[in-house]
Specification:
Helices cover 67% and strands 0% of the residues. It has 5 helices and no strands. The longest helix has 30 residues. The protein is mostly helical and 95 residues long.
């Protein structure tokens, strides 16, 4: 699993099991703001200060979208390198 995914899982666990989730969410937001900015829904000015539960849920939702994009792109790259289909062969036209 990549570091982003590990940190996201840790944040999710802290959200459910600790009281420091506001502080932890802000740290995650600061650490991955460039990656999160790749998501068109993410508006940095709205999530600059993670101070409500609603913003944490938005952050988690956006982070999961980014996670899917990261791994979707990795899968496409792997498939592109290993699983190129054979070119189609057509019969020569009759004269």
């Amino acid at each position: 699993m990549c570091q982003f995914c590990n940190d996201l899982q840790e944040l999710e666990n802290k959200y459910f099991f600790t009281d420091d989730y506001l502080k932890d969410s802000q740290k995650f937001n600061d650490k991955y703001k460039e990656s999160l900015n790749t998501n068109t829904i993410y508006v940095y000015t709205k999530l600059k200060n993670i101070d409500t539960e609603k913003k944490i849920i938005q952050l988690l939702s956006i982070a999961y979208d980014v996670k899917q994009l990261i791994h979707l792109n990795e899968d496409k790259e792997k498939q592109g390198k290993k699983f190129l289909p054979e070119p189609m062969k057509f019969p020569e036209p009759k004269k």
